[in-house]
């Protein structure tokens, strides 16, 4: 059965680690930390690689969430890919642990005009 959990999150850390501006396209590595509040409660760390130039931007990232989802505690990894074609956030198969073992699904992030982030997780978990 598919479930949905919604939360807000705060960016606790945004630290560029390295940059390379060769050939007109800048590469950067960014370390990120977030805190989630709501039906997803806990924290995450993110390793992001970005590429940008005057006409295009894209990133790939892996995010390890150590959270409770609708009261079930554990961790899992989200795989981010984003570019001009849009954003995709997928749970990495086999990455769930604790009460989130076997989790699968996807997520979405939206930002309102005030800059507040909403995280929506659409997921499936094996029956307990």
Automatic annotation (TrEMBL):
InterPro entries: DUF3224, SO1590-like_sf. Residues 1-23 are annotated as: Disordered. It comes from the Bacteria. This is DUF3224 domain-containing protein.
